[in-house]
């Protein structure tokens, strides 16, 4: 009996599994692990959204099958959000589909539009599903190495052009995601205008993941939408989610918006594989988008407070870490004394000696191996405790710690 399944065999080993295993061992030993590993919001969802869910679930009619593309009221609410936030007018019936979180939507879109051997361009490091979603669909990924200098987009655009010229077969799609997970980088509208021009000329689709659009720390630099570029909807689809904006990760509500061709392809795939989210959840999600937005401001302030506590604390401890402009992550270069170990070994040592769990950068691509990702999902008090633990860890002899790596 065959057990080497083709699609699964294309996936590399799951790097985060090793850190998760060590976290479990530490907790079973009674240690208090401060967990910055997963971008899993820890705040309660907005009270009025929870109340709308409770109210709606009491109606037995909402317990039936829903609609795979999302109820009209939810799609209309997303259209209103795009008009309000980005001044982009969307047709709820042709240019929006609700997804079971943006991750599911991206994977199903990849299944819908990818042929075996298609070449997909994706920055590296990147959120894993941006690559693996297309790999599972039979595509081939051409990685675009990203540096971490302020003008990184200049070199990224040149890499995109070079990849289009030299890839055989010619690429079919470009993935972008800003604010970035894991790097927290943001881009200007000029960058989006340039890649739309390039991709239109070479007949490439664009997939934009805008999951962190509302988590930014400078109001003069609000993240932009790719769809703000005139003509972009002819070739682009953009994914958003309520997971981070409204602390609703377990609700699994996301959206794909943009090109009627791509939205139509995703809608068709979804009609075969799901009946949409639970209707009361969709009704409550519409209430989140349509209702008061004070909660979003509060969450933004909370992440800013945590970010400042972490970054300034680490700097005071001797770990030079850049202050991000957006997202719920800090992308931290490994301290020079430990850099030769790589991100996985460094993460293991940090867990063992500081009781602090982070995500190794190698899990987001080989060009992330010099960094770790720290998610702002612990309260400020816990963050300060983590900083104290890390400060003690950094005082230890790096050579002696490095000798432990083979034992972990």
Describe what you observe in this structure.
The chain is α/β, with parallel strands linked by helices and 408 residues long. The protein has two domains: 152 residues, Aspartate Aminotransferase, domain 1 (Alpha-Beta Complex); 230 residues, Type I PLP-dependent aspartate aminotransferase-like (Major domain) (Aspartate Aminotransferase, domain 2, 3-Layer(aba) Sandwich), CATH 3.40.640.10. 44% of the residues lie in helices and 13% in strands. The chain has 15 helices and twelve strands. It has a seven-stranded mixed beta sheet, sandwiched between helices. A three-stranded antiparallel beta sheet has the order 9-12-11. A two-stranded parallel sheet has the order 1-10. The two termini are 35 Å apart. 49% of the residues are buried.
Question: Could you provide a short overview of the structure?
Answer:
With 408 residues, this protein is of the alpha/beta class. The chain has 15 helices and 12 strands. It is globular.
Which key features would you list for this structure?
408 residues; alpha/beta; Aspartate Aminotransferase, domain 1; Aspartate Aminotransferase, domain 2; 2 domains; 7-stranded mixed β-sheet; 3-stranded antiparallel β-sheet; 15 helices
């Amino acid at each position: 009996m065959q057990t080497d399944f083709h699609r699964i065999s294309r996936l590399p080993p799951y790097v985060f599994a090793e850190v998760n295993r060590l976290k479990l061992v530490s907790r079973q030993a009674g240690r208090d692990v401060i967990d910055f590993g997963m971008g899993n919001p820890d705040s309660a969802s907005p009270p009025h959204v929870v109340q709308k869910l409770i109210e709606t679930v009491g109606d037995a009619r909402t317990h039936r099958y829903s609609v795979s593309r999302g109820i009209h009221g939810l799609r209309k609410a997303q259209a209103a959000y795009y008009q309000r936030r980005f001044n982009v007018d969307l047709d709820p019936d042709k240019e929006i589909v609700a997804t079971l979180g943006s991750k599911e939507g991206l994977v199903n879109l990849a299944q819908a539009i990818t042929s075996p051997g298609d070449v997909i361009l994706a920055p590296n490091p990147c959120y894993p599903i941006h690559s693996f979603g297309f790999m599972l669909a039979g595509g081939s990924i051409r990685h675009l190495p990203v540096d971490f200098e302020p003008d990184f987009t200049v070199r990224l655009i040149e890499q995109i052009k070079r990849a289009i010229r030299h890839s055989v077969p010619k690429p079919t799609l470009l993935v972008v995601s800003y604010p970035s997970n894991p790097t927290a980088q943001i881009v200007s509208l000029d960058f989006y205008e340039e890649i739309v021009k390039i991709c239109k000329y070479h007949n490439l689709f664009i997939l934009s993941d805008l999951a962190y659009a509302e988590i930014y720390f400078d109001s003069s630099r609000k993240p932009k939408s790719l769809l703000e570029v005139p003509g972009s909807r002819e070739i682009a689809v953009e994914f958003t989610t309520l997971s981070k904006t409204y602390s609703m990760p377990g609700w699994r509500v996301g959206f794909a918006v943009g090109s009627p061709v791509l939205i139509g392809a995703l809608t068709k795939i979804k009609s075969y594989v799901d009946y949409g989210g639970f209707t009361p959840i969709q009704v409550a999600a519409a209430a989140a988008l349509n209702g008061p937005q004070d909660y979003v401001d509060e969450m933004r302030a909370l992440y800013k407070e945590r970010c400042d506590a972490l970054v300034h604390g680490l700097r005071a401890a001797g770990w030079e870490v850049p202050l991000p402009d957006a997202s719920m992550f800090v992308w931290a270069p490994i301290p020079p004394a430990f850099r030769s170990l790589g991100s996985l070994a460094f993460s293991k040592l940090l867990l063992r000696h500081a009781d602090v769990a982070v995500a190794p950068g190698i899990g987001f691509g080989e060009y992330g191996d010099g960094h770790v990702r720290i998610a702002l999902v612990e309260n400020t008090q816990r963050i300060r405790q983590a900083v104290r633990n890390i400060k003690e860890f950094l005082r230890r002899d790096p050579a002696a710690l490095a000798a432990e790596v083979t034992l972990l």
